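Ticket #267: bound-state structure for CDM.
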Amino acid sequence: MIVFPNAKINIGLNITERRPDGYHNLETIFYPIKINDVLEVIESDALSFQSSGLEIPGSEDDNLCLRGYQLLKRDFKLPPVAIHLHKNIPIGAGLGGGSSDAAFFIKLMNEKFRLGLTADQMMDYARVLGADCAFFINNQPVFAFEKGDEFESIKLDLSGYKIVLVMPDAHVSTAEAYRGVKPTFVKETLYDLIQMPVAQWKRHIRNDFEAHIFNNHPVIRGVKASLYERGALYASMSGSGASVFGIFETLPDLSTLEETCRVFYNV
Ligand SMILES: C[C@](O)(CO)[C@H](O)COP(=O)(O)OP(=O)(O)OC[C@H]1O[C@@H](n2ccc(N)nc2=O)[C@H](O)[C@@H]1O
Ligand SMILES: Nc1ncnc2c1ncn2[C@@H]1O[C@H](COP(=O)(O)OP(=O)(O)OP(=O)(O)O)[C@@H](O)[C@H]1O
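RESOLUTION: The complex was predicted; output attached.
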């Protein structure tokens, strides 16, 4: 069975408090985008994992797909499987690529081996693997809160706009991003702000990671500025970075950015 795990962007991200467990409470809007990996699972004689495409740092045993397999195996009698992941979603990008692979792996296993899990049950498994992971089970635009793994559905349809995603030559680890952030009280919740017209978002919606990540990686600040110079209605770093997205009325010419960055049009 083959599935195509997709990336997400965060529209707005407010870090509201540090939790006793070391994590942070936050609020954000998750929006799915059309940048995809390819994940294939076949029944096999032995458990194996191989990947192609972008190089994934870390050992294969730490790959979130294998961790998903081990997690399900605690509760279900599963045969060995051969997993192939073709990696295309940029890594260290704030696009949730690894989390998406894990969530799609759980959905695939549920279907392939008829495990009978509901979406809520799959989300409970996904939460164990990462804060971002549960979102990709339903994969619909949501307002997310607490660790970013509790959701309220929202009406948000950006299909009438052109969304462009730019990945500069910089990588930010999620842990690095959280280490430098100072939680702040939220006056106006994103749940309400997101209902404003897109052209007004620039004045009201922010990503709390940007300030210190831009200081550590000025190239990311430059990409965001370029998107506004080319007419973006709204531009922001996604999640903990390093990718930056822009929402446009018409598709911009980003050929100069393409010299130094990976640019994805119409995501
Ligand atoms: C930045 C976001 O992508 C926004 O959507 C997410 O909050 C990150 O979620 P994620 O990559 O799934 O994160 P995890 O793999 O669960 O956590 C990585 C590290 O980020 C920090 N972390 C993550 C989520 C959160 N709400 N508070 C945190 O402080 C913790 O130090 C944790 O050890
Ligand atoms: N399937 C996978 N794809 C990508 N990274 C993976 C995968 N499985 C495990 N990882 C590990 O996760 C790390 C990437 O996570 P990181 O949080 O830094 O960036 P990200 O992919 O942009 O995700 P996020 O949006 O959650 O921040 C990699 O260094 C790698 O070791």
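RESOLUTION NOTES: Residues 97-112 form the longest helix (16 residues).
TICKET STATUS: resolved
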